Amino acid sequence: MRRKRSGSAGSWPSINDTPSSRRPLLGPSVSVPEAAATAAREHHGLRRTDRILDDGSDGQFAGSQGSDDMQDEERPLLFRQSTIYGAMDSASYGGKTISFWGGVSLLVNNLTGPGMVVIPKLFQDAGYLPTIFVFIVVASCSYLSSCFLCEAMTHIPGNSNFQGRVELTYLAKRLFPHWAYMATLLGMCLFFGITIVSSVAISAQTMDDAILAAAGKTCAIMLGPKAVGTVCITDATPHYDNPFGDNITISIGFVVVLVLTIPMAFYNLDDNVWVQQGALIVIVLTTGVWTSDFFLAGISVARVPPVGSSMKGLLGTVMLNYAFVTSVPSWINEKKPEVRIHRSLWVSVAISTALFILVGLTGALAYRFGSGQDILSVLTNRRASGLRR
Predict the structure, then answer these.
(1) Per residue in 172-197, pLDDT tens?
(2) What phi and psi values does residue 360 have, to the nearest 5 degrees?
(3) Contact yes or no for 375/363 (Cβ under 8 A)
(4) Residues 6+ apart with CB under 8 A from 382
(5) For 177, which DSSP code?
(6) Whose CA is closest to 340, among 159, 162, 139, 220?
């Protein structure tokens, strides 16, 4: 038995005709009128997700797939497809156990990527006023875009309170036309490829420098284009940035990075939160060491003008540092229900922005950065001629 909607060819079930055994797909058990009201509200997109984003709970609206009495073609697009929960073995994903500080660690680690080491050069080229302004604007936009993404996740049926696990690609597939979904996949593949390559390269170079400083020697297999074969260098070997020069290499540092990181890929996100928390501690300590070195080197305000002569690369580099929104759905899927989303996001963005400005400004005030130089190359070669004035 159906009741026609006024002014529409579609229909939905009467509240009184809803079977007593019918319940929403996920969420707490509710009475028959509440279940039908939930389906009606979600049908019209009237869910109160503002409260969900603020405190992680909504006592009125549980996830619902809509009434089964509706024909598939009468449902909105989202309700015509099975939800993500139908094919998911939730037991294999474990519980939602990431705490507030675990989530902050994860987000800050994704924020402070390989672009952090080139920030001092931005301050010297563009000046401290434009650079700080761009950081604040991009940080605000990243925070808001993350909030909007969380809001979009609640529009997947059965996920109004983040009960399930909705990843970014699945969200794009459900909400976007096919061409936009394919464009999203392509963009994500390109972004992750660029980020991973740069992160691995910087990590391997840093590890080789650490081995060189500790053991006085490191080796690599060189694959070209300038040299082929096995080579070992010592701390007396002159080098600028990469210890092995402009060659494709498989170095000891690269192998160490692989050994340390590959095992982490076999764990669920919530299982290696301790790694994220440890990495955040390392980032804070590294920032402290860098800042101390900058002050010990000597601060000169003449190195950083209020407004510089070149804005080249300013916006792109700053945006690269804030490209963390792709990790937000994975964090949402594993966080504890009581963890507040807004607070976690703005704390993470605020901490990262403070680290960026602190390292960038003090580094620019302490050293003169030439073309292509970053923090790692300057600190490695600070005794070389012309690097410090």
Answers:
(1) 888 889 999 999 899 888 888 887 88
(2) -65, -45
(3) yes
(4) 297, 367, 388
(5) -
(6) 162
pLDDT at 146 over 60: yes
> At CA 135, angle to CA 133 and CA 141, rounded to 5?
105
Report d(CA 112, CA 321) in Å as an integer. 6
How far, in Å, CA of 37 to CA of 14, rounded? 10
**Which distant-in-sequence residues (6+ apart) come within 8 Å of 158 by Cβ?**
24, 25, 26, 27, 63, 64, 65, 83, 84, 85, 164
- Positive or negative, the CA dihedral 234, 237, 238, 240 is negative
Question: 98 by DSSP, 3-state: which?
Answer: strand
Alpha helices (H) along the chain = 32-43, 49-55, 100-111, 119-126, 128-153, 168-175, 178-215, 252-261, 273-297, 314-321, 328-334, 341-366, 375-380
For residues 296 and 386, the model is more confident at 296
pTM of the model as a whole: 0.69
Residues 6+ apart with CB under 8 A from 208: 218, 220, 242, 243, 244, 251, 252, 253, 254
DSSP structural state of residue 5: P
**Residues near 39 by beta carbon (within 8 Å), at least 6 away in sequence:** 12, 24, 64, 65, 66, 67
The residue type found at 186 is L
How many angstroms separate the CA atoms of 265 and 263, rounded? 5
Q: Which two tokens stand for residue 18?
A: 């809803």
Separation CA 71–CA 64 (nearest Å): 16
